[in-house]
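hey so i finally got around to running both of the ones u sent me last week. sorry it took forever, my laptop kept dying halfway thru and i had to restart like 3 times lol. anyway pasting them below in the order u listed, first the sequence line then the structure token line for each. didnt double check formatting much so if smth looks off just lmk and ill redo it

first one:
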Amino acid sequence: MSFTEQKNTLLQQVIQAWTRLQEQQPLVQCITNSVATNYAANILLAAGASPAMIDNPFEAESFANVTSALSINLGTPTTEQMQAMLISAQTVDHKNTPWVLDPVGYGPVLKWRSSMVDQLLAFKPSVIRGNASEISALAGKQVQAKGVDSTISSHTVYRQAQCLLVHSECIAISGEADFILSRELGLVIQVNGGSYLQPKVTATGCALGALIAAYSAVTTPTIAALAAHLHFAIAGKLAYEKIASVGSFNVVFMDYIHTLNSEMLLQYADFQLISL
């Protein structure tokens, strides 16, 4: 199958995933950071999913047993959250429920959370998603990050990240262009679009991880990552075309997350395939 034929097939699978997301409204357990909790929940609601921010160890196992997908984000971990992460990851691993790991701040500076990420990898996340600095560090490269923000380009990292496919079906790297490494397809998918204003809105990356989890409940890890990234890229592109100030952009961006449909996916999806 040629790349053109594969692209057409992938886009149809993304549209099917979007349709199933609207129909099924999957329940997504989010263990995320204090900065992102509200925003991630609103993104999931706008996209058609049902968020549940269950992040304490006393309820983690019982809820992970019924959730459709799990999103774990290491942004501002507390001791109880760390316990809930391990319990939830172990539970969904036993149930073969899809889950997404967002290793926020991974690296030598924040050793406590980084050690937890290393433990969580044993439970085989369906998708690992992060910015270029985090993914590079997770792949064993020594990089300097500015807090939890990336200081290197996603273009320079996606080949480094191939080694992480032993831990996960799919690696998603966000940046000026997004790169999705698929073990299933043996390909890299480059997603274009979006806006430079997206990183200026707190928690957009964290919310993207939660949306990948939502899509993971209705499709394969590769299609879930591609669908979520296209959902964000199209919403960001169209929002920026309408308004270029950061506060108003965020409102319009959320509107487009909600109003995205199959016709918009067909018209605006911008991605290309690259051999691994």
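and the second one:
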Amino acid sequence: MSLYQNVLVAIDPEQDDQPALRRAVYLNQRIGGKIKAFLPIYDFSYEMTTLLSPDERTSMRQGVINQRSEWIRQQAKAYLDAGVNIEIKVVWHNRPHEAIIDEVLEHRHDLVLKMAHQHDRLESVIFTPTDWHLLRKCPGPVWMVKDQPWPDGGKALVAVNLSSDEPHHDSLNQKLVRESQQLADMVNHTEVHLVGAYPLTPVNIAIELPDFDPETYNEAIRGQHLIAMKALRQQFSIGDEFTHVEKGDPEEVIPAIAAQLDAGVVVLGSLGRTGLSAAFLGNTAEQVIDHLRCDLLVIKPDDFVSPEAKNVPPSEH
């Protein structure tokens, strides 16, 4: 079964240009499926108008919904006229990320695309609170689309965790590579590169242990990561020239390799957790994201359960 056949595009209400919708159509033309252009809207002033009856308030809200639906239809007119399958849906909701996640859960969307803002070509992408909520809590993949053209020959860079002491990363690494390859094969045979970062020698160890040899330690750690990368790339028939194992913090290594490759998208995994920590991507992933200047695709593990899932009634089918 093909990836991403039921795509939700979060429409930006402040823009007359919709890069996320454009990217969704680009994917749709290559892999098929259907697109939903989705916009949650809310105006507190309508709720505060005590002079109006409940029916009048409902009517006014519906008027706004109809108006915004027509606005989206005009945004998508060229695509609709060309026969692209786009459903337009506007809902009244005061928390956009909850509305989007509820829609994803209820209608089983397998990809969310949303525009990410940036000040100019040289600055990193800026993420809004809604963006962060989606990246942390959305059950399926979230693709943050930069409002710049896809680079010529843009590559996909998959960030993998090669730490041998964290075996729970193995299945997520495999999912990241597998889905990235499937997508790349369907979309212009995009090159897929893998990147892994290994840590610097902890300074306190060198101070506390006089006989400690930092160089030997570094070589041992690098060797472990190279062996793990080789095993992963061979599993997916990826050439050595498409893998990058670098010393340093992931939040520095990954954006640097992305810039070096002129990557179109960086693919990151977000570990599913239970309890309070389920809402968080984890410090490393969040710091990487803050330094990126290209598109970002965040994929959750198969066992991830959205914290918002409790708000949606179970599907009848």
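quick thing i noticed on the 2nd:
The CA atoms of residues 19 and 179 lie 22 Å apart.
anyway thats it, ttyl
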